[in-house]
## 1
Amino acid sequence: MGDFQVHAQVLVTSWVVIALLLASPIVGTRNLQTIPTGSQNFIEYVLEFIRDLTRTQMGEEEYRPRVPFIGTMFSFIFVSNWSGASFPWRIVQLPHGELAAPTNDINTTVALASLTSVAHPYAGLHKRGFSYFGKYIQPTPVPPPINTSEDFTKPLSLSFRLFGNISADELVVAVLVSLVPSIVPVPMTPLGLSTSAIQALIFATLAAAYIGESTEGHH
């Protein structure tokens, strides 16, 4: 688009993930029952899991407003990771580039980390007002640049960890499948799904922990 290069292959797989995330709650809640069954039960289980995760990291008083953000991050990363672990995108041939899970692209993971970098100071300012900036002069006013850089380096470290693990997992699976396509997918797929779920959980848990830390007072 002009002089701006768009990674269209990532946009394609991202919209596939977004479509799945939008369709799942619509299908699961279109016929709500007092005693949930089937897809409604699954959606409620996922929501309860995200609530528990957020409450554990932020406390009973602060977690509710943050559930949508943490839930969106976890759901997008989880489904993105699983799409790469369960479907070998790389076998789809494109004229330019190749398809891959959205989290297999550093642009996606850095964007997710940037959202976290904005979310946790916002939460701190919303909760504590300008006293939030007091943490930058603790224990003395000398190291504010170091304290400030931590707000960005900690979430960015999440992005590189997520990108590295998902990229390596997809690459290994793609190579092995190309060598022995009829044997490797059976044992490798469960391993990839497990790794993908753990990476989504780590990212969401630490994002919630950073936000929870910003709303706590300093003594």
Note: The chain has six helices and no strands.
## 2
Amino acid sequence: MKYEDWEDEATIISKYYSEVETLLKNVTGASKVIIFDHTIRRGEKEGEETPDTPESRKPVSRVHVDQTPMSGRRRVERHASSPAEAERLLRAED
């Protein structure tokens, strides 16, 4: 993607999601990747103070994970194509 593409949500979803899906499948051997959302974090411009809101997320200084084991399970249940698929994917976790 080009730098300018990161300003357009539709381009991020249509282009970057497929690039990440392909990368994750190639690196991990996964047969399926479900990307459910994303966060773009941007620093403030010189002389500008922007509140840290879900629409305007600031960079973080540490590595972190936004999902707990339980919330991860709920994400699978919410985003899998069917309850049967969610059950199959969660069973593979064990």
Note: The chain has two domains: 1-62, 64-94.
## 3
Amino acid sequence: MNSRSANRFRSVLCGVAAALLGTVLVVPAPASAAPKCGRPGGPAPTEVPWALDRLDPASAWRITKGRGVTVAVIDSGVSATHPLLKGRVLPGADFNGLPGRQGQCDQAGHGTIVAGIIAGQEGTGAPYTGIAPESRILPLRVLASTERTTDDALPGQIGQAIRWAADHGADVINLSLVTLDRPELKDAIDYALDKRVIVVAAAGNRQENQQDQPAYPAAYPGVIAVAGVDEKGGHVGSSVAGDYVDVAAPGLNILGPAPQGSGYLAEPQGGTSFAAAYVSGVAALVRAAHPDLTPKDVAYRLTRTADNPPDGHNAEVGYGVVNPYRAVTSLLGTRTDAPLAAMAVPVRPADPLGWQRTVAIWVAAVGALLAGILLAVRPVLALGRRRGWRPGRRSDPLDL
């Protein structure tokens, strides 16, 4: 091998080595695995869940199933792949660490159950639907998990999500969460209400040996605050009570779609999170049937058509359990905000001419009586005139 060939050979070897070395150097680090969006669930139910049986939303479906209404679920994200929600979940947004997933990754599983309660569609083969099965879900992720947190950034993130929902076509906002009372959160609620968006929120779940405290955003004016009831209609013990509670819905032994696969997750402890979802579904039906109603009008309709307790309103269940059929179909007039039980019998206003009417009635009755007597004695008077007012006598038999 001459020197020129040797140099060429060395050059080729160096090029190959450089190429191999370059290959090694430019290989990217193994990509981090995409987050698993929640856990799979168990088998689908074989019977209608008690909550659906109790509320009977199908009775209102002859009028509307919620078509054209968008419900923003500000939660832990919403899976878009479960058969119950496939095709019903819009691209949303993420405000807590999963950019690019458009709110459709639910690692906690909470938001997917909430969305299924609201808008789960018919025709999946399971006896399970949402309250408004033709409504759509706008998923906004603000929660990484369902653990309690005092993160001071969370109210601001929730406020951003509320504004985003109001600006992107939401008709109803569901807030199955509780956070700190902050001005930015209150301002966001007011912003949504001013844009005619109905806002529904969980009244809150108290921990053991904890006293009832107002829960936010549920306690803000204009928000429909929801408490939980059990299968017998009784107040769930963990559900926070307060004067701000407006209505109640099922909040114990809840079932809903899992974020992975086609299974279902059971939530035996329930909570006002899921009760709020049922009310958001009813609000979606009302908005679809009565699109011109303001958020205040919708709240009025939900409270005045609820299955109210005997005292009309109390701190545990508000005006009572929502009633989808009556909320959609009732013709409501204006009336004062009194307990519903007291409204069953209307009170007539005082009649300033009442005593004159009573005297007139008595005079008419006496006059009618005298007229009747005169008519009865008229034949007797005529006979008396013919006889010259002499007493009559019986005929003698011998004269016959």
Note: The mean pLDDT is 84.
